[in-house]
């Protein structure tokens, strides 16, 4: 049956209930029960969003797409910061695998500080496990300091560190005091914490806020000051967004954390608005910045040309300045024609095709925008490490039950800064903006944006992925590197939406153009028609060979 | 510069590893396990390890890599991972139905002291292992050795499946070590030509260089079967290719099954391949077929034809001990000058062996075990080379220092070919030569003034 | 600039050829003749021809090329070369003792009208041809066609040795055309796997990719034997690979020995190889072994994995008709854009065939038969490309225009590998892909700004 | 027996008579008789040089090293001239094979005229053979002129041209007149003329003299004006010689023809001395320049450090100027130590080894100098296309019999130029110089420089070459590309002395150093010890395998 995918057309029509049944059929009862709550058929229940189980443990033995807390903390959030020396405290592996593998781009200029091409590790040995690794950690920090004299050194704990009880925070504190001119701080992001990368994001958010954000009050000049949260500059997305913001005259003080520097984080509390791209990985910082410094946040999305225009308008609307509003409109008016030209060329070749997206904590949602623009329907989607609010919207937050795994992730209590808290807008102004349609602190999640009877599946695993593809035969499947080739073996093009394989940027206007062309290439590549040899297609031998 | 903070001046480092020339044990165990037919590697630790290893192997092979994990949570890390593993075994057999589960531990499960044997026994007692299915395990603490050690441990665990019957099977065990699927295929081709009956383990050929046919086979045709592994205790002997990768398995069979063994270098290059072929000839008491002699002669012919481009060229190498030892010997035999040699894998024997191989060279080589690429780069800054050989991470050094560069080793993340074309044996030697000559000659063509741009080379 | 006088503006040329994309017939005849076992090619003309052809082939193969000449002097040129040839035949058999002498003519002997048949007859009558020895000849006037034509003529002369017995030999004649020894070896390997009995002629494998062993064999093991050639009139059919190189021989056997034939493209790339394998399957009525399907699947897999680096890349090609036709089809199948295509060999069918293959591309290709590399260069200046494929003379264009460049064709004078690694068949396709991807990715790595220098590709 | 060469040591001791017998053994009587006159055992016969047959036809069917007249004319002599458009009139092959295959280097600077990387041909087709090629030739010349507007266009005839009677000289003349600003001339160098390249050299010399030399009387300034004749700048030899001459303050007006330009040829008659490197290929021009313009010539050799020093001293001696003599000595004193340093390092590894040289018309002689410096004995040598005078010395010239093949090669009659003939030295001066040891118009040939009982073989062929190597096992063999690999298959390193394989320069002081290192590499390469596999060296199987 799999062999058919190459030739047969998409099967979006299939009854989703049937599909769900098929997906669960092979599981042991216990697993089936659990998974059935994470596999949702999208149907409006008297206009409330249906409920899905998310952010819960993956069943051991089930081949998951998920990674660990360390990956979420060191790999995702801190990885893109170029002028912090990020030292992994642990055996060599974790540092090695998170070395340059995410395609976060950064621009340090010809001679700026840039440690992103380096991998730093304490390479713990058994003696360190037995006698403790604090000494080695301290020595490693000292060696890094002596070699590079960086502004900051960050320490990341791997699994054994917590178990053997190395007090990395005290070591960091001690070294910071010793150096005087170098901020040293640590992250207890052992891989076993939480149920996915997500816990790592949270831990990263906490420490960023505790140790860097707001450390530098040197005034940042310029008008329309914002921070961009949850944008990691994969394949240059951040560069394209910066280009557009600059063109609009919007000042981005800090991006968390694509193409970022220590100084950007330290001064980010001076912004007047936080624009949140990836809600999942960074909303904690957004909330804390609001509580402590009075900076409101809105959800934006620069994936998709329309979405980009919409997000720019939201920001302009927030500042409410006529000049800015006009400039934004001018920029949109200038950029869109190029986008539309390419779309007009490509769309006839993509229209009506189907896509599946299973990735991240926001991309599975954001990229549906681009597929919509291409006239492609997303017939199934889900996140790898998101929470219910990313599916259903933040209104579910109050009644999320906190399970054993989440309980262990620190929630830091933040209060308004006695001296620096400054509401950016009066209540009156805010109310007016809300009335005018601008939503603060709001994210409605993926499900409401998906069509009826599509499938929403949390923590999709390899077995289910293949079944889905075999049954529904999408024209393209989006996930991560681990999933890429098992899907393609089935004859369905697979696009990575973590690292983009080799492409990008896909954000903003130029990114939309890139993505249109890339999807065109993938769904129309001749190669999918080569999978069967002539003798496999017609095993019967014709009577005799036709000599000339 | 990409590595703009690397100073020329070399300072002693005791604690900080920068740009490692190794990774951790479990990925080696995972790669080895993929060389067993119908095997699902299982990582007993938290999710991240498995995700990282699968990603790295996938990027290297551009092929699907299936492996499962015990998905440790904080609870498991405190109370032990037995429950997770038992649950995993049950789920794996019901959902994926492999012939074999090959479990390897991680720093996490090793630190908390999970006992694989005991857990496996419990799984058996609870009937979680269906009849005819195999579960094996290897201890691969990430804080000991390197990915090479993990490969060796899992390979040894394969040998430990041996069930000697007392009746010889007339075969030779050949333990190829960490080489590419194409290399294992080439070893089999050569042994086939020579007419030696063998059990090759592990064998990833047909597993990690698969076709695109519209079908996804989680467990492809390739791999050493459990039946073969059981039988390897009845073999007439074991040839272990590579002290680091393969010797443990061979010696275990020697001690425990009275299967004598011989540890050879990996058959990269002329001399090492000669020793391998010579060993097969003696063991099997056969005459080497003309075809093999012909391939050998072609390699020698190419060396003689191109010698002027190789002669006294300085080379920096980084990789794994067994591969580097053979490659260094090969380079010396080409009248090239291996100058800086680094492996991240610990072991003084490595430095000793390299010094032996290079003792007749008119200079002292820089060699370090448990070194890193930061040091290699510094050595190069202090004593520039004409050629750099190593994995994909070398490209940052090659570009900064503008050095001709041949990708060889693990991982290769940015080029194709290693899955399909062997570098072992004589044909492999010709391919290595082709690649080395290619980058050296490209450089000549790039840098030649117009007065001396050459048509014939 | 190396080719600093080549203007962008293209002007019509009717008489002057600049930087030819072909050479003359005799060298093709000489190369073909080396594919007969125990054969000494003989050049019937003045010394220089033979010297030039031997030098060119030697530089291409880095192997000894033995061939003799009639050493025309002014006298012979006036009074005819018969005396020289008779003397030569006598000396050759007494000094070098080959099985076969394969004579080809030159512009000189053709212009003065020497008659090979008549001279051969005279040699026979005078007993200058020892019993059991063979002398064959081909007319290869340098002022007609090209080196390809000469290859085809000598190949046809081989077919003309056929001595049908009326009893079928159960074999298929396969005429590979002008491909490398490694390619002929690969064709034999594939046919062996499929289980087709064949007579392959000519066959230079084992002749021009020899070993260095301390012995010099003027006549190595390889080559098609005269016995095989005599028998090819009893074969069940002939597969001619390449209209230009192989069709004449096949059609002669069809007309004169009632051996039916089919002319296929040379099996470079996926589709052409598919047709070749499919033809063998139908003829032999066999099932294609998994091994072949596996190799095919690997090629398709690699195409799918690396497609993004190939997609819509513009390519300029120069070479010989049969090779270019297959390569162009392969490039189109990779979603690449062959843009400028030149062969020096005349024949409008070439342009017609290329236009067919490229008809679905969104642009008009530049294609020319009887063209030259000066024109190709001008086309490139007017419409730059991402990749250049051709023989070693392309390196001057590649450097001047800074174009990634893959060496493929004849002659290759400045790199190694073509003697040892096939580019025909599926494995050959993988090698071609590896080479194309290699140069394209090297360029990406060279030109990438530091912000987007890629580790994983 | 061949298989032994790799291991066994050189067999120089062998009785040369024995060797000669072996070489001839297999030949038919007629061939044996002929060859025996071309194979000479070097023995002093009451102090006269023994006689050898040379410059005679190669026997058809015998695999010779020789090429043709076209190769000698277009390939060797005119090939290195960079600003003449050299058009081959004939079928495509001859032009193709002589395209960039000789490693003549030239330095046109960043934007000077340089056609050497191009191949120009009329690519004659059968219609041209039938109806004549003159029209096409004229059209080709026109197209070349229109495309490049060169100073000069040269036409080279290939075999069919003479046979079909194309009058290329008239075509050339007509086009020259038509253009006015472009010299067009032709060479009747059909491949079948003469018995080797040598005839082509002569034809080239004649036309150079007729059409270019002396065409430009614009005075050339500078003192110590010489021409260097018979130096083709293979692998940069000419560049090194130029470097040295310049350093000595010697002005080289023209080199025939390495790194040469049309203008150099045209003004070369203004030199005061002709220094002849390759006597064979260029002595005609030397003689004619003397007869017509009164320029004396001396034989020089810049192959070998000592020979270079000696040649420089000769030139200085000729001009007899103290300043020059001192400068030359100073240069030698500065250059020699570098040479000696390398020699001292290399010689211990080369001393006592043996060499064979079979190449060209002078190199087989010149390169013995370098081997002598390395302490290596030349045990056998010979030329490919030389004449008796190159072996025995010019004293044999008067009594050389002219055979049918030589008779056809034009000897142009030259007389003293009525206006421009100017003796450079008075008879008195010349006599004094001769007395002081400077020999004019003199070349003693190779044989006198070779040791007793060495072998001198003219027009060595492939069969004899292998026999020689098998019997005498030299440590190195020097010839051309066609011979390279059959010799190396026998396990003996083979150095090309036409094109140098890939190396050079080997002339002058720097060249000597390069050559020492190259020979060291070749005779001491490890590869020659790899030829036998272990199982070939000891085919006997040891009883059992030695397990650990």
What do these coordinates show?
The complex is a heterotetramer, with 2 copies of chain A (548 residues) and 2 copies of chain B (457 residues). In chain A, 43% of the residues lie in helices and 12% in strands. Chain A is built from 22 helices and 14 strands. Chain A has helices at residues 16-25, 29-36, 69-78, 92-97, 126-131, 134-148, 159-164, 168-179, 197-211, 237-248, 262-267, 279-293, 305-319, 322-350, 363-373, 388-392, 404-407, 427-435, 462-472, 481-489, 508-524, 534-537, and strands at residues 39-41, 84-89, 120-121, 152-157, 183-187, 225-231, 251-257, 273-276, 297-299, 354-358, 377-382, 455-457, 476-479, 494-496. In chain A, strands 1-12-11-10-13-14 form a 6-stranded mixed β-sheet, sandwiched between helices. A 4-stranded parallel β-sheet of chain A has the order 3-2-4-5, sandwiched between helices. In chain A, strands 7-6-8-9 form a 4-stranded parallel β-sheet, sandwiched between helices. Chain A is globular, with a radius of gyration of 24 Å. Residues 1-8 of chain A have low confidence and may be disordered. Chain B has 457 residues and is of the alpha/beta class. Chain B has helices at 25-33, 47-61, 74-79, 82-95, 107-112, 116-125, 147-159, 181-194, 226-231, 243-257, 270-284, 290-310, 321-333, 348-357, 373-382, 394-401, 425-447; strands spanning 17-18, 39-44, 68-69, 100-105, 134-138, 172-175, 198-200, 237-241, 261-264, 314-319, 337-343, 366-368, 387-390, 405-407. Chain B has a 5-stranded parallel β-sheet with strand order 12-11-10-13-14, with helices on both faces. A 4-stranded parallel β-sheet of chain B has the order 3-2-4-5, sandwiched between helices. In chain B, helix 7 (147-159) packs parallel to helix 10 (243-257) and helix 13 packs parallel to helix 14. Chains in contact: A-B, A-C, B-C, B-D, C-D. At the A-B interface, helix 3, helix 4, strand 3, helix 5 and helix 6 of A face strand 1, helix 2, strand 3, helix 3 and helix 4 of B.
